[in-house]
Design a protein that fits this description.
single chain, 247 residues, alpha/beta, Rossmann fold, seven-stranded parallel sheet, 15% strand, globular, fatty acid metabolism, KR_dom, EC 1.1.1.100, steroid metabolism
Length: 247
């Protein structure tokens, strides 16, 4: 897939699934703007990894839950790169607890980053994509947003909200040459799942028809397709990347 002379913004792009997506797009020639909230060294390390592909890469510290900060960083990326072609909404957090024990702050934090953060980034790139009459927006939902999960009412609500937002914005922007889609990963091998015990991992794998935990690259491959010219007629879709877990 060819992404030459395109620019991608990847939120939560300094590690895990976000970094894998950034790598896949950079491999195809895209310039990359990484948004992150971790330690600065994390952003710099990701930048160094991506620069091996020979494209322009910059990292920006940004809490996407902050409406004003999101606008500021979008304006900065457009100024630095000359425009944005792909918006990948990948930033997300968890605060897992049963509703019985969940604090209001646990619910608000997850909704603010996962759902409102996605809205903020779409809102601030919306006019830009309309004027270009081109754009690809891909947001990371989750199978939890489709089927729910005990102890993740806040996370499930945020990811289900991303699905509704994706379908709504897809209807709004389809006539402007902008596609809006989402991916719904299942169990993916990230820092969070890698920290689990072997016993828990085996239990997880036993639930998956494909009999393996997915990789960040599995998700990145689907996101790259949705950004490609080959997917120009695909919009409003939610593609599960779960090895069949939510069939």
């Amino acid at each position: 897939m060819n992404f030459q002379d395109r620019t991608a913004v990847v939120t939560g792009g300094s590690r895990g699934i976000g970094l894998a997506i950034a790598k896949k797009l950079a491999e195809g020639g895209a310039n990359i703007a990484i948004l992150y909230v971790g330690d600065e060294s994390e952003g710099l390390n990701a930048k160094a990894e991506l620069e091996q592909y020979g494209t322009k890469v910059e990292q920006y510290f940004c809490n996407v839950a902050d409406f004003a900060a999101s606008k500021e960083v979008v304006d900065k990326v457009i100024a630095d790169f000359g425009g944005i072609d792909y918006l990948i909404n990948n930033a997300g957090i968890t605060r897992d607890k049963l509703v019985l024990n969940m604090e209001e702050s646990d619910f608000d934090a997850v909704i603010n980053v996962n759902l409102k953060g996605t809205f903020n980034m779409i809102k601030h790139t919306y006019k830009h994509f309309m004027k270009k009459r081109f754009g690809r927006i891909v947001s990371t939902s989750s199978i939890v947003g489709l089927i729910g999960n005990a102890g993740q009412a806040n996370y499930a609500a945020s990811k289900a909200g991303i699905i509704g937002m994706t379908k709504s914005v897809a209807r709004e922007l389809a006539g402007r040459g902008v596609t809006v889609n989402a991916v719904a990963p299942g169990y993916i091998g990230t820092d969070m799942t890698n920290a689990l015990s072997d016993k828990v991992k085996e239990t997880m794998k036993a639930q998956i028809p494909a009999k393996r935990i997915g990789t960040p690259e599995d998700v990145a491959n689907v996101v790259a397709f949705l950004c490609s010219d080959e997917a120009a007629y695909v919009t409003g879709e939610v593609i599960r990347v779960d090895g069949g877990l939510a069939i």
